[in-house]
Amino acid sequence: MATAMVLLRGAASAPGGRRLSLVVLEAEKKLASHQTGNNSGVIHSGLYYKPGSLKATLCVEGRRAMYEFCREHGVRHECCGKVVVATREAELPALDELERRGKANGLVGIKRLSAAELKEHEPHLAGIAGLHVPETGIVNYAEVTAAYAEVVRELGGEVWTEAAVRAVHRLPAGGLVVETTRGRVEAGGLVNCAGLQSDRVARLCSATPGVKIVPFRGEYYTLRPERSSLVRNLIYPVPDPRFPFLGVHFTRMIGGGVEAGPNAVLALARHGYRRTSFSLRDSYDTGTYVGFWRMARRHWLTGFGELHRSFSKRAFLSALRRLIPELELSDLSPGGAGVRAQALDPTGALVDDFRIVQGDRMVHVLNAPSPAATASISIGRHIAKLAAEQLGLKHEPSAAV
Fold first, then answer.
1. Can you give the pLDDT at residue 12?
2. Cβ neighbour number for residue 256 with a 10 Å cutoff
3. What count of other Cβ atoms lies within 10 Å of the Cβ of residue 30?
4. Pairing mode, if any, of strands 137-139 and 82-86?
5. Paired strand residues for 21
6. Beta bridge partners of residue 333, listed in sequence order
7. Strand positions, DSSP E, 283-379
């Protein structure tokens, strides 16, 4: 079941001097098969998040650590900057709030832009005001993940693929046994970072997650190569503050080309990358959850608009043309899609901040949407500290990376 789980072995003897070892369990044939490998590849600055929140703190720390990691390990990346654009007067208060949050989160390079100044950064852009955020960058997170795996192996750990978790048992002496499709593993503790399956894994571990993962598919178009010059770097709209989604935007990719998207449409399967994807179990889980219906009652109109954009290329184009008016239907080619693991609580609230909870010898990561890829190193350090406390170990920050 688990997309990813980290097992901590050797915990009982670690205080006596033996090094703690790791086993990473990956359900798929290759790493980064889901959220990590299907996102837009942005290194987020920390602009959007409420100052003092776990998201804000870990994103800012994680962005710095990500750039350093990529430099040290030869991972392709670029700190190219982005602009956030207001296209209507009604968006100006939200733009003001973004500027305030960015400065509170330590973005020293952030700059307010007039309509004319926006054109200097992105000549084809339409907007009445904006922000330039130079700390934002681009990378391929599948390449980052491969580099992470090499670090784990170099430190004596193991990475198992095609090792879906089927059961978790406690040993009388206090350890754990994890049953996988590749066999069983004994460990002193575990970290559940299973993304789209994280709530189910928590329940396998006899934990009460308190949230339900509801999948939202994000679909992309790509610009025809001869029209990629319409976008220099990254262009974002002012997001709707009611939702933890950033709106359709333009992203120059580290491997070349420009992506446009994503939307955010309810998926009928947790791994539902196509409109026709359907899982009876996943749909039943969503449809029988009271929190989903409470959310749907509040936001059905927005959801209908996202669904319309999913089936109508022209509607998708209309949203994009708010930012770049000269874009034509023929400029867009179908791209890929990703599925976001969005935690929803029983009140119907889309959980905005990271949600990491502890259990006996366990740490469960139950909500880690964007900017989790950017913040992955700082999230890892935070989890390592929690895991060390759970297992009675001395926490060494340098080893957490």
1. 41
2. 8
3. 12
4. unpaired
5. 9
6. 222
7. 332-344, 355-359, 362-367
Contact partners, residue 139, CB within 8 Å, separation at least 6: 41, 43, 66, 70, 75, 76, 77, 78, 254
Q: Which two tokens stand for residue 221?
A: 């178009």
CATH of domain 212-350: 3.30.9
pLDDT of residue 392: 83
Phi, psi of 121 (to 5 degrees): -85, -45
Is the peptide bond prior to 397 cis by the omega test (within 30 degrees of 0)?
Answer: no
Q: What is the DSSP letter of 256?
A: S
DSSP structure class, residue 272: -
Residue 364 bridge partners (DSSP) = 192, 357
Helix 54-73 vs helix 376-391: crossing angle, to nearest 10: 110
Find out whether 339 and 38 touch, Cβ atoms under 8 Å: yes
- pLDDT tens digits for 314-342? 999 999 999 999 999 999 999 999 999 99
Tell me how crowded residue 13 is: count the other CB atoms within 10 A of its CB: 12
CA gap 147, 142 in Å, rounded: 9
Q: Which two tokens stand for residue 317?
A: 């184009």
**For domain 1-77+136-210+354-401, which CATH number applies: 1.10.760.10, 1.10.630.10, 3.50.50.60, 3.40.640.10?**
3.50.50.60
